[in-house]
Write a sequence for this structure.
């Protein structure tokens, strides 16, 4: 579990660039839940060896919000690790356009880079547009990326309902599990609780609104 | 009898050129007059000339794509847009350069195909085979012609479909093809007919099949099945610097079409192709697409899933050696409920080559219950090579299941060590690993192609690893 050096980001801008040096361990945590339409970047350049970078993100979208997010994991030097995990839950007519690039430069041999983007669509009118990209110029590397888009699985919901939970409570529980997967990787108990309660409070309000 | 003039035009390893025999050759470059001449020589109906001229206008107004590979070196004015082939030419197999014969032997190409590829068309034995196949097909009502004959013999059928799935306005190269097309195949399979043998372009010997701007149209009527195979694993030398084909396929209700391509153009060629299938209710459309040759390939076979329960699949292999860029992939666009698609891509970059996977998954609101899975694996053989992955998932409804995953890695040290410890040479071991890597796609190829492809990769790997 990574400790220390957690940077929490609550809003996006066009010019959000971080450089990580040799041996540093950094976590960037993006939390978007204010319902504002945004268009911004989160770029991390690893200009050093044996650095370990985590980029985490939770996005709760609703209303007519449009979120455009570009993330960059730029490996300039050898033997560093970067690991990105961004999850979204999109209600109403919220739209997410996500583009993530892993770039491994020629001199960045022995790099490890991961990128995962998951999107949970809560309504018929919600959209997700996901473009996870890789540009690999060194060969002795391990890079993977994955993306999924879908709604809450019927079998998960069914299981919880068979245990006596109503749909909303069951849905909220699933969302909690889904987000906590990302949030628990922050490694800072206080921050984790703060972020989780913010997200779940919002999600609960949105679920309540849905049936009325 | 002309003696072949075997002047090496490039240093392409297996390159050879055929002496030119032509009855008519359009002027170099593109103009309204050239397009009119092409149409006149083919004695086309007026609507086709009109279509060509309209497409030419589109070509002039469309911009070059700003993404993908480097297209800045294409000189549209330095290309012959139409060469009318002459009568059969006689030439002996022995006249071909030794390396070519050797390559063909080592790949293990059947004798008949070998001679045909070598340009020894007069002695092409499979003419007999072709005639008997044609007879069987004819009885079932299957039409299998080159596109020019198709237009002549079935003008109404062609007019109904031609250019409707890939209109000239689609992109600059579709416009270019629409204006200057020549050759390609025309296939119609009637309702409920299953064509057991794969239809192969090289059976169709009445016209040149390797056109620069070939145009293929396949219509599979309800409940029918056809497998079409195009290209071959043998290196094809061409002096043409640009190959730009258009392939339109209509898969009707409950029908299934499989289209297999193995492309191995010489490394001076730009290969810019638009391929699309329109799949109706419960139909299945499959692309198997192998790209080995060319300088730059930009090709993304697509499936448009229009009817409920339609299914599309793309299997793509790309192999890029020195100086090559394979920008390939696939597209699946879901317009109807319960449609499913799968794209599997395997790419190998070696000796400074670059492979890029580029793909699109699009799901529209009415396509509830859609499922799709994309898997891209890339292998980087050395530090000079490069691999990119550029997928797009544009999902506009929530009742869907969309998955994408990709990995990029090198040949595993443990795998290599194991094989070396068994006494294999490094090149052989690497070739074996590469062949294992692309196996899931190769096993879908007709047997003879699969064997040829494996041998070809063996050959390429030998060359790349000192």
């Amino acid at each position: 579990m990574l400790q220390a050096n957690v940077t929490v980001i609550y809003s996006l801008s066009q010019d959000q660039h971080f450089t990580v040096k040799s041996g540093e361990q950094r976590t960037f945590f993006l939390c978007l839940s204010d319902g504002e339409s945004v268009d911004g970047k989160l770029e991390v350049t690893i200009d050093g060896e044996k650095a370990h970078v985590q980029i985490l993100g939770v996005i709760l979208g609703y209303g007519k919000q449009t979120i455009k997010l570009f993330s960059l994991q730029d490996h300039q030097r050898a033997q560093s690790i970067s690991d990105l995990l961004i999850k979204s839950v999109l209600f109403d007519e919220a739209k997410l356009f996500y583009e993530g690039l892993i770039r491994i430069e020629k001199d960045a041999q022995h790099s490890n880079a991961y990128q995962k983007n998951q999107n949970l669509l809560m309504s018929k009118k919600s959209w997700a547009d996901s473009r996870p990209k890789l540009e690999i110029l060194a060969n002795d590397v391990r890079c993977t990326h994955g993306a999924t888009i879908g709604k809450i699985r019927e079998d998960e919901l069914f299981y919880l309902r068979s245990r006596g939970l109503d749909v909303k409570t069951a849905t909220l529980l699933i969302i909690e599990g889904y987000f906590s997967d990302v949030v628990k990787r922050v490694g800072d108990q206080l921050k984790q609780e703060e972020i989780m309660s913010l997200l779940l409070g919002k999600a609960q309000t949105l679920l309540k609104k849905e049936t009325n | 009898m002309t003696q072949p003039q075997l002047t090496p035009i490039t240093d392409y390893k297996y390159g050879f050129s055929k002496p030119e025999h032509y009855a008519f050759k359009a002027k170099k470059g593109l103009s309204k007059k050239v397009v009119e001449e092409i149409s006149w020589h083919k004695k086309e109906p007026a609507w086709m000339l009109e279509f060509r001229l309209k497409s030419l206008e589109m070509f002039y107004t469309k911009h070059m794509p700003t993404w993908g590979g480097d297209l800045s070196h294409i000189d549209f004015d330095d290309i012959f847009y139409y060469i009318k082939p002459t009568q059969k030419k006689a030439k002996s197999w022995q006249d071909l350069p030794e390396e070519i014969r050797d390559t063909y032997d080592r790949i293990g190409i059947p004798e008949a195909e070998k001679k045909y590829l070598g340009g020894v068309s007069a002695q092409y034995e499979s003419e007999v085979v072709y005639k008997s196949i044609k007879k069987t097909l004819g009885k079932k009502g299957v039409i299998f012609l080159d596109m020019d004959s198709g237009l002549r013999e079935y003008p109404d059928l062609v007019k109904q479909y031609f250019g409707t799935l890939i209109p000239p306005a689609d992109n600059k190269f579709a416009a270019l093809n629409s204006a200057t097309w020549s050759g390609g195949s025309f296939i119609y399979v009637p309702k409920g007919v299953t064509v057991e043998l794969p239809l192969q372009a090289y059976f169709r010997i009445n016209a040149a099949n390797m056109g620069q701007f070939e145009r293929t149209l396949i219509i599979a009527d309800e409940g029918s099945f056809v497998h079409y195979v195009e290209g071959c694993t043998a290196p094809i030398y061409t002096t043409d610097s640009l190959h730009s084909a258009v392939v339109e396929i209509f898969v009707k209700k409950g029908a299934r079409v499989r289209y297999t391509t193995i492309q191995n153009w010489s490394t001076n060629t730009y290969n810019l192709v638009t391929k699309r299938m329109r799949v109706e209710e419960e139909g299945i459309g499959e692309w198997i697409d192998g790209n080995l040759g060319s300088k730059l390939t930009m090709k993304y076979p697509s499936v448009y899933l229009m009817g409920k329960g339609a299914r599309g699949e793309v299997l793509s292999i790309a192999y890029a050696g020195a100086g090559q860029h394979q920008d390939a992939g696939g597209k699946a666009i879901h317009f109807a409920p319960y449609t499913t698609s799968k794209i599997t891509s395997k790419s190998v970059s070696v000796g400074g080559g670059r492979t890029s996977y580029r793909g699109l998954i699009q799901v529209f609101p009415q396509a509830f219950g859609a499922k799709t899975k994309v898997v891209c694996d890339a292998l980087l053989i050395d530090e000079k090579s490069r691999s990119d992955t550029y997928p797009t998932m544009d999902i506009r409804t929530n009742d869907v299941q969309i998955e994408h995953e990709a990995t990029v890695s090198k040949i595993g040290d443990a795998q290599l060590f194991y094989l070396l410890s068994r006494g294999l040479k490094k090149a052989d071991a690497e070739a074996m690993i590469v062949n294992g890597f692309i196996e899931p796609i190769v096993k879908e190829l007709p047997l003879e192609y699969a064997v040829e492809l494996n041998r070809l990769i063996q050959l390429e790997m030998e060359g790349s690893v000192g």
